[in-house]
Design a protein that fits this description.
Blueprint (H helix, E strand, L loop, with lengths): L8 H8 L3 H8 L12 H11 L8 E4 L5 H9 L4 E5 L2 H10 L4 E4 L11 E5 L12 H11 E11 L8 H19 L13 H10 L3 E6 L14 E6 L1
Parallel strand pairs: 1-2, 1-4, 2-3, 4-5
Antiparallel strand pairs: 5-7, 6-7
Helix pairs in contact: 1-2, 3-4, 6-8
Length: 235
Amino acid sequence: MFSAHGPSLRELTVQALSSVERGYDLLAPKFDHTPFRTPEGILEATAEALDEYGPFGDGLDVCCGTGAGLLVARAMCTGSITGVDFSSGMIGQARRAYPDANFVRADVRAMPFREGFDLAVSFGAFGHFLPEERPALFEGVYRALRPGGLFAFAISDPPPVTTLAHWVLLGFDGVMRVRNAVWKPPFVMYYRTTPIAAMTKDLQAAGFTVTTEPLDAMGHRRDGTPHFWLALARK
């Protein structure tokens, strides 16, 4: 499915009926051949926008997966780069791709870092956290950063109700809620639980000063608003 090197429909079904951790362990060897990997365009646009704020010292990729965000951290940081994720399978793939990076297997809702990084990034992970779990995640990132450190990530508002994308994402989230109501363990992945306003509120509650700027390189909607924003949370 997706490509000759991607997972089959059967493999995706088994993954979807697993826990988040087990599902990603299973998907890890073929993850980079799926649309779930953060597109290069978003990574490049984020690195380009961050260039005016750097360079940074040590960098952290939160929920690193197979390491797509480490490309941005490596480009922006002059010191070490570290990836943290709770899937041993994903970390194994990332370690092979980035042998010069450090990796820590941990639940990012309880990260074991304290003032060790100047830049933290994250890509494509926030849908795996329920809204009530975000405070612990953001508080952990805040602790991990040195004073003046920056937490940066690309984010988009939900598509307008008049678009097909709105209904596709609404339908996906609905299916996931039904799946989690009738099947255990749950697989948390929702596309409509991370609006910019709610994310900003949670970041501010964790202690961050938050600004956003458009990622113009990713284009704009018909109403002129950008498809993606860059959130900049400063400690």
